[in-house]
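Hi R.,

As promised on Friday, here is the backbone we talked about, encoded as structure tokens. Could you run it through your design pipeline when you get a chance and send me back a sequence?
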């Protein structure tokens, strides 16, 4: 191993996660709170754990993540992206597994901006011919 701390940035929608992985007992902290406390929904907790389960590194690394922006679902996706990128630094052999699962691709879908003369991004006001 090169060093004992690995850093990566993960993004999804408007959420940005700064992720540090270090060898340890498997303690997972997001914004200074345990994962199960920060992400109340089981689906969000599952999303965060996916890279560890896929690479069979569950419990081998401590996670420290700082997340800003977006909602909880986007933040969970951002943490997942960050973990996946950090695992690549640890072992480049994980690349094939993570890439096939689509964990290394940044989900760039963001909310479309509202256009002038429209009610929303695409929705118009009701059209009246007469």
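Update: got your reply. Pasting your designed sequence below so it's all in one thread:
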């Amino acid at each position: 191993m090169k060093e004992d701390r690995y850093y990566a940035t993960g993004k999804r929608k408007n959420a940005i996660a700064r992720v540090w992985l270090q060898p340890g007992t498997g303690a997972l902290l997001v914004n200074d709170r345990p994962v199960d406390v920060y992400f109340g929904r089981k689906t969000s907790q599952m999303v965060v754990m996916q890279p560890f389960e896929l690479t069979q590194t569950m419990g081998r690394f401590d996670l420290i993540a700082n997340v800003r922006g977006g909602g909880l679902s986007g933040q969970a996706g951002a943490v997942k992206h960050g973990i996946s990128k950090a695992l690549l630094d640890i072992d480049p052999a994980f690349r094939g597994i993570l890439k096939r699962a689509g964990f290394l691709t940044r989900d760039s879908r963001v909310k479309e901006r509202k256009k002038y003369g429209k009610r929303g991004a695409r929705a118009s006001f009701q059209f009246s011919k007469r």
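One thing I noticed while checking it: Helices lie at 35-38, 42-55, 72-90, 95-101.

Thanks again,
M.
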